[in-house]
Design goal:
The protein is 48% helix and 19% strand. The chain is an alpha/beta fold and 161 residues long. A four-stranded mixed beta sheet has the order 1-2-4-3. β1, α1 and β2 form a beta-alpha-beta unit. The radius of gyration is 15 Å and the shape is globular.
Amino acid sequence: MSHYTIEITGQHTTSDADRSFFTDAIRRVLQEENVASATISLVFVDDAEIHRINREFLEHDHPTDVISFLLNDASEAAAAADLVPPDVTINGELIVSTETAWREAGSHGWSPRAELLLYVVHGLLHLCGYDDLTDTTRPEMRSRERELLKLWGYCPTGLEP
């Protein structure tokens, strides 16, 4: 049986219905990735805050859509196995820009909530060991994003293979 602890916070928190939606979405993605145990913190912020975090922790001087931090040593296991093994507990944090979601949603032809879901799925896949930083690894991650988003009936445009 899976055990997930999920906390949703932030200066741009969503409604209770959205909290429930994103909590369920996180659980569903973790189940689909066969993660047995996880503690996930999802923090909604604005562009200024995600820019600050991106600069401070990743040395990138620009805002972004989502940042994921793996907070345990599962990163070594993920690197060795390409994906997090089922017996490893993921302890991670996702930081998501609601401002970016509102601005970018139209480019995929969907709602800001769907755009936020894309960011959550993307961040969770990073925590599970997927990578989109190289031409070799990007197609697998993009394909998995599309597969997972279809669980909610979303078929994004603009996600390159």
